């Protein structure tokens, strides 16, 4: 949270309703995305007690394991889910740009999906198949393999496969209260009641669970007795009584799940009113490519290793770092509110332009009144105004009073901002191809084992006295001189 | 108390020995919240039962597999089975037996168990003894000290294990470590390490994680050390009144944090008070930090609107930034409209 966020929180509190924190939608909903609301049993991690899942335009379907502590019930539920999810994946694969987008209500629901993926896809087939308790099925493992797609992408900034309803609202609106990710309370701020204090109304909304667990009171008073009653009749001869008891549990869980589904749908309705930002297509291409790779890996009989090899770790880190940078950059370029925030925090340079005489070379000066600036001498920055990209190198910065004078050296003089005109300069612009050159650079670097990783002893390095001569012995100047 | 040491209201209740849940119900009329789900309780019981069945087979195998105990180092004692009655005398005996074994091991006097299940120790705060019951204490034959063991049925998902759960387990074990340090004084172990036993996902098979809890121990000790000053402050504020009315409780300043809801029964009443007083804590911990020095939400709004503060330089800068942000936001949002 920054001062910008606090300022928006104050404004929202004053207006007693949510205020925009973004001008554009930072993602795009697929026309056929699914909503998925899982419920887990308290203490049982990972587990799935019930799930309400389906395309967004439907009411969804509830699938339930009446007692998720029982291996048999768990495995039955996983078989049904595998069929459903595999069908969705196949349908998306057949579309030219499709990928199986899932909207979850909360971050804890992401935890359930990740937990199931990590548990199921590493299930080992028992050597002794005649074992009384069956702990494994092909369906369970296949479901885990499919869910691995979400588990692996969920950490990538800007990913569009696994959307989280409360995060979407948090990213695009500011609320006059710290709601700690409660989707129901967020929706109260989105559409405040006319006849009630908004904070009181939000507190009431918090009584409805929006996470992945039923509340302890319900567990104690309703669910635990119902489960006990069902366990007693499950194997009895009266199948009608057993199915009655089962239905009773399912109905209880449905009562919890339906409001969560509606709230997730509500978050989607608000978000879909915003126009997507410009670079969202590039983000979507990445999702399609990750999805295709995942499916091809599975079709080849590929498995997922529990730990990364050092090689894979290097590529994954590079991919994540690149995603972080490109996404952040895309937001600054594509959303004016994000740009203002970046300006306030000194991430972009804003100021009036002064051209220097021609004999000074391709130089211009930007005079900025910003309080903070995160640019340094030697940084390459990009002009955000105008249609043509102008790149410049920061030659010098001098602070005097409230003003900072930034001397830039730039090419493409024809595209420079005019004298006296205000301009914005960003640290970078989105470069969606950079990951490819990064990958080949890493690959070239990895061809040779670095000296630090060689078996032989490292050569002794002669210690040198500190160089105090540079810039009069000033250590900061010494560091600057190395840049 | 250690989770929100700057909340004087919570500290006052803990030091005076009052139960926060009871006070919340009696003073504020807030219905007591349901504690743990019965499913979570039963899961914990099943896990512990599996660990200790067949003469503690699984827990000894776990320690042997991790190279902490040898095959023959399997002497154990379950103190909850030795002293089964739940009365003061039985509990005292349990504590005496635990302390005797801990001292004997230090002196190398006689054979002591490698595993003590359900020992009872005590922590002294301002001269008052508070009992604590770690799940177990463990030591190899050659060890001079026992190490506290905290057993939780949380799924061990390695790097993805819930950090808040690991944190709370560490804090619990740190209390046991302080009890051992207070019992042995200078002879106590310098290694502030405890063992956390978690479960492999969806099974009753245990995993072992030795954890360094130096920071937790220091944090708790500092809270205990400040207890006399806290008490003095409370007495000054209450001026002889007891903690049995809303008025006297409200005289003690609280500090509402984002995780109060997870552990404090007073959370609901503190939040209602914060709403009535337009307290900045409702904007979250980070916003409270950024707005330190601002008295309430109304002053924050005033600062944002005027953009300056004549008396305080820091507030003046804050006001200018808030004002600038508001202006930029208004400009773009009005464009949109």
Descriptive account of the structure:
Chain A has helices at residues 3-15, 71-94, 107-120, 138-153, 165-172, 183-190, 198-205, 216-234, 239-271, 280-299, 310-334, 336-344, 434-447, 475-482, and strands at 19-20, 34-39, 50-55, 61-64, 102-104, 162-164, 173-174, 349-355, 363-368, 380-383, 391-400, 403-410, 422-426. Chain A is of the alpha+beta class. Chain A folds into 2 domains: 3-304, no CATH class; 306-432 and 471-483, Beta Barrel (Elongation Factor Tu (Ef-tu), domain 3), CATH 2.40.30. Chain A has a 6-stranded antiparallel barrel with strand order 8-9-12-11-10-13. A 5-stranded mixed beta sheet of chain A has the order 4-3-2-5-6, sandwiched between helices. Chain A is globular, with a radius of gyration of 28 Å. Chain B has helices spanning 8-16, 20-28, 38-65, 79-82, 88-107, 163-184, 214-225, 227-238, 246-251, 260-263, 267-276, 285-290, 297-306, 313-336; strands at residues 76-78, 115-117, 121-125, 128-132, 136-138, 147-155, 193-199, 206-212. The mean pLDDT of chain B is 88. At the A-B interface, helix 1, strand 1, helix 3, helix 7 and helix 8 of A face helix 3, strand 6, helix 12, helix 13 and helix 14 of B.
Task: Write out key terms for the chains shown.
heterodimer, A: 483 residues, alpha+beta, Elongation Factor Tu (Ef-tu), domain 3, 2 domains, 6-stranded antiparallel β-barrel, 5-stranded mixed beta sheet, 14 helices, 14% strand, B: 337 residues, alpha/beta, two-stranded antiparallel ribbon, 52% helix, elongated
Short description:
Chain A is 45% helix and 14% strand. By secondary structure, chain A is α+β, with helices and mostly antiparallel strands. In chain A, helix 3 crosses helix 4 and helix 11 crosses helix 12 (336-344).
Q: What's the arrangement of secondary structure elements?
A:
The complex is a heterodimer of chains A (483) and B (337).
Chain A: H1 3-15, E1 19-20, E2 34-39, E3 50-55, E4 61-64, H2 71-94, E5 102-104, H3 107-120, H4 138-153, E6 162-164, H5 165-172, E7 173-174, H6 183-190, H7 198-205, H8 216-234, H9 239-271, H10 280-299, H11 310-334, H12 336-344, E8 349-355, E9 363-368, E10 380-383, E11 391-400, E12 403-410, E13 422-426, H13 434-447, H14 475-482
Parallel strand pairs in A: 2-5, 5-6
Antiparallel strand pairs in A: 1-7, 2-3, 3-4, 8-9, 8-13, 9-12, 10-11, 10-13, 11-12
Chain B: H1 8-16, H2 20-28, H3 38-65, E1 76-78, H4 79-82, H5 88-107, E2 115-117, E3 121-125, E4 128-132, E5 136-138, E6 147-155, H6 163-184, E7 193-199, E8 206-212, H7 214-225, H8 227-238, H9 246-251, H10 260-263, H11 267-276, H12 285-290, H13 297-306, H14 313-336
Helix pairs in contact in B: 1-8, 6-7, 13-14
């Amino acid at each position: 949270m920054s001062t910008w966020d606090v300022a928006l929180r104050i404004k929202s509190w004053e207006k007693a309703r949510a205020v925009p924190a973004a001008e554009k939608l930072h993602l795009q909903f697929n026309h056929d995305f699914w909503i998925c609301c899982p419920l887990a049993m308290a203490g049982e991690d990972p587990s799935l007690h019930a799930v309400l899942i389906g395309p967004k335009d439907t009411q969804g379907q509830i699938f339930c394991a009446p007692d998720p502590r029982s291996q048999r019930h768990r495995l039955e539920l996983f078989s049904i889910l595998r069929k459903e999810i595999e069908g969705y994946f196949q349908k998306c694969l057949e579309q030219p740009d499709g990928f199986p987008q899932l909207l979850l209500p909360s971050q804890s629901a992401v935890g359930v999906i990740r937990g199931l993926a990590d548990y199921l896809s590493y299930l080992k087939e028992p050597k002794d198949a005649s074992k009384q308790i069956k702990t494994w099925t092909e369906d369970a493992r296949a479901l885990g393999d499919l869910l691995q797609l979400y588990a692996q992408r969920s950490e990538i900034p800007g990913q569009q496969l696994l959307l989280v309803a409360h995060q979407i609202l948090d990213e695009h609106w500011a609320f006059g209260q710290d709601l700690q990710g409660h989707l129901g309370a967020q929706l109260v701020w989105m559409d405040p009641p006319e006849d009630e204090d908004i904070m009181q109304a939000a507190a009431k909304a918090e009584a409805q669970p929006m996470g992945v667990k039923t509340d302890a009171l319900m567990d104690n008073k309703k669910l635990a007795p119902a489960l006990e009653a069902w366990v007693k009749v499950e194997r009895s001869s009266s199948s009608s009584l057993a199915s009655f008891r089962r239905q009773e549990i399912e109905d209880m869980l449905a009562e919890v799940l339906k409001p969560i589904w509606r709230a997730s749908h509500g978050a989607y309705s608000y978000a879909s009113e915003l126009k997507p930002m410009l670079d969202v297509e590039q983000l979507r291409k990445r999702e399609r490519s990750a999805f295709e790779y995942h499916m091809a890996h599975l079709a080849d009989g590929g498995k997922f290793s529990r730990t990364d090899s050092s090689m894979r770790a290097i590529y994954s880190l590079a991919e994540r770092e690149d995603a972080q940078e490109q996404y952040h950059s895309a937001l600054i370029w594509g959303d004016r509110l994000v740009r203002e925030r970046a300006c306030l925090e000194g991430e972009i340079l804003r100021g009036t332009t002064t051209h220097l005489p021609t004999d000074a070379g391709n130089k211009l000066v930007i005079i900025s009144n910003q309080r903070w600036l995160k640019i340094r001498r030697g940084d390459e920055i990009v002009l955000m105004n105008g249609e043509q990209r102008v790149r410049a190198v920061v030659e010098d910065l001098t602070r005097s009073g409230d003003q900072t004078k930034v001397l830039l050296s730039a090419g493409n003089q024809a595209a420079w901002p005019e004298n006296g005109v205000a301009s914005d300069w960003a640290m970078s612009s989105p470069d969606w191809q950079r990951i490819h050159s990064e990958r080949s650079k890493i690959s070239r670097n990895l061809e040779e084992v670095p000296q630090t990783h060689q078996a032989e002893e490292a050569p002794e390095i002669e210690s040198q006295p500190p160089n105090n001569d540079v810039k009069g012995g000033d250590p900061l100047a010494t560091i600057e001189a190395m840049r | 108390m250690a989770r929100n040491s700057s909340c004087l209201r919570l500290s006052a209740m803990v030091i005076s020995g009052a139960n926060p849940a009871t006070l919340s119900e009696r003073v504020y009329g807030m219905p007591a919240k349901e504690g743990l789900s019965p499913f979570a309780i039963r899961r914990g019981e099943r896990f512990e039962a599996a660990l200790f069945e067949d003469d503690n087979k699984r827990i000894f195998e776990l320690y042997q597999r991790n190279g902490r105990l040898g095959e023959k180092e399997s002497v154990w004692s379950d103190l909850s089975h030795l002293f089964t009655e739940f009365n003061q005398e039985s509990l005292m005996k349990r504590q005496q037996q635990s302390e005797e074994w801990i001292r004997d091991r230090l002196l190398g006097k006689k054979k002591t168990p490698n595993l003590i299940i359900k020992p009872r120790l005590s922590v002294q705060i301002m001269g008052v003894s508070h009992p604590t019951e770690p799940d177990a204490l463990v030591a190899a034959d050659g060890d001079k000290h026992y190490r506290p063991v905290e057993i939780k049925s949380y799924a061990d998902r390695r790097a993805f294990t819930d950090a808040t759960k690991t944190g709370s387990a560490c804090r619990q074990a740190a209390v046991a470590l302080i009890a051992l340090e207070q019992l042995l004084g200078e002879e106590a172990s310098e290694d502030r390490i405890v063992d956390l036993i978690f479960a492999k996902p969806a099974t009753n098979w245990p995993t072992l994680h030795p954890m360094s809890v130096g920071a937790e121990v220091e944090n708790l000790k500092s809270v205990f050390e400040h207890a006399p000053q806290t008490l003095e402050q409370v007495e000054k504020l209450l001026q002889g009144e007891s903690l049995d009315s809303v008025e006297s409780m409200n005289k003690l300043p609280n500090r509402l944090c984002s995780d109060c809801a997870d552990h404090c029964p007073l959370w609901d009443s503190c939040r209602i008070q914060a709403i009535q007083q337009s307290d900045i804590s409702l904007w979250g911990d980070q916003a409270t930090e950024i707005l330190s020095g601002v008295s309430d939400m109304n002053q924050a709004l005033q600062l944002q609107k005027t953009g300056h503060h004549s008396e305080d330089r820091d507030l003046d800068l804050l006001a200018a930034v808030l004002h600038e942000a508001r202006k930029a936001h208004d400009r773009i949002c009005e464009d949109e409209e």
